[in-house]
Recover the amino acids of this structure.
């Protein structure tokens, strides 16, 4: 039997201005779907479940859905729907369920809730459990924590799969140490247990931006081939950062062995949540099989209790601005990559390696890319000339930025 709700179901509820909209909606659902069971499910991601082809969601014409259309940007040049109010018919396994989602404003910002309507409580619970398990299992994705919840990201997974230590310009001994340290750790669970040692590992990657920290993390995650969780934000309009950190570590412990990443650690951990963060790292909680990788551009902003105690981060790897030999290696790699497109001489590689003192790898890449674009727009001069012109321009920009920072 198909369930239908009045066309103005939600509008009438909100027009009555209830003090507790969630309660008013649930009571109205129970009254209008008396032959069904109504179960609240606040964070249920049925859309992602449908993308995984585990269910099919059909948007119902009533109650009247409220959708906001937005542009996906240049990379995804089409319109998307932002759901505010909607009623769905869900086809899952051999069952038909319904799902209502609604949004409303509050004094603290906004609220978004969902309710599953099924013929039995068992069906509703099994559906909710299946969706939560499937959408929180990384699979071929990275789990990203933001806005207080975990979501699967295939977009972050793809760059990880394309990353390689072969493309990272770093001292061979450091690369070998990073790769073998964590792989040996994951392979040594029994040895740790036999010795009565906590089977956990942590590393902090330190250095100015643009010198390979993120690339290194991606390449390491690819090689370790375990679940990866990435903390993007510890901010929420309702929850304190300690509550969010508790959610972060709880999910990581459920997926062990796994890699938990805190990028720009100095921006995520502050005086308010530092004590709780330390407790989660090496307190009484069981962290067996947990690899914690963190990066920072500003180690001076991190408390010594975090950065200087081995049990928090066992290893610290420094990614400093490249010296001339590494700048030469980086430019030579790009010269080889572009050999079929431009005439780039070995002499200019050597000259640029000397002229680019203070450049990060990101700035060196910008030097090559901007020179290539300039040459493609006007190839009347040799590519080497374009490289030298762009080097002068970028060096001037770098001096301007440094002077601006110094004057603040």
């Amino acid at each position: 039997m198909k369930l239908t709700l009045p066309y103005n179901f939600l509008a009438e509820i909100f027009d009555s201005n209830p003090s507790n909209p969630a309660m008013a909606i649930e009571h109205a659902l129970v009254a209008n779907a008396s032959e069904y069971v109504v179960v609240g499910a606040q964070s249920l991601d049925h859309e992602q479940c449908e993308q995984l082809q585990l269910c099919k969601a059909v948007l119902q014409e009533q109650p009247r859905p409220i959708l906001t259309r937005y542009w996906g940007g240049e990379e995804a040049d089409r319109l998307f729907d932002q759901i505010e109010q909607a009623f769905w018919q869900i086809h899952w396994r051999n069952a038909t369920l319904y799902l209502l989602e609604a949004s409303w404003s509050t004094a603290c910002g906004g609220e978004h809730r969902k309710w599953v309507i099924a013929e039995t409580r068992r069906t509703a619970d099994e559906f909710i459990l299946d969706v939560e398990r499937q959408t929180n299992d990384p699979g071929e994705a990275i789990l990203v924590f933001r806005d207080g919840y975990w979501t699967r990201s295939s977009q972050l997974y793809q760059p990880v799969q394309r990353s390689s230590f072969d493309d990272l310009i770093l001292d061979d001994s450091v690369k070998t140490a990073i790769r073998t340290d964590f792989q040996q750790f994951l392979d040594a669970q029994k040895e740790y247990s036999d010795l009565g040692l906590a089977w956990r590992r942590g590393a902090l990657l330190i250095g100015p931006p643009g010198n390979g920290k993120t690339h290194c993390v991606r390449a390491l995650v690819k090689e370790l081939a375990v679940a990866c969780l990435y903390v993007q934000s510890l901010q929420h309009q309702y929850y304190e950062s300690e509550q969010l950190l508790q959610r972060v570590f709880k999910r990581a412990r459920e997926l062990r062995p796994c890699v938990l990443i805190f990028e720009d650690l100095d921006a995520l951990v502050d005086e308010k949540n530092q004590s709780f963060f330390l407790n989660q790292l090496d307190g009484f909680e069981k962290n067996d099989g947990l690899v914690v990788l963190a990066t920072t551009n500003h180690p001076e902003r991190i408390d010594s209790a975090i950065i200087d105690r081995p049990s928090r981060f066992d290893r610290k790897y420094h990614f400093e601005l490249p010296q001339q030999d590494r700048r030469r290696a980086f430019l030579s790699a790009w010269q080889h990559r572009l050999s079929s497109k431009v005439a780039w001489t070995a002499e200019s590689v050597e000259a640029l390696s000397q002229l680019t003192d203070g450049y990060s790898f990101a700035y060196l890449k910008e030097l090559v890319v901007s020179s290539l674009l300039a040459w493609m727009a006007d190839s009347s001069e040799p590519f080497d000339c374009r490289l030298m012109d762009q080097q002068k321009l970028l060096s001037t920009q770098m001096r301007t930025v440094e002077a601006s920072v110094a004057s603040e």
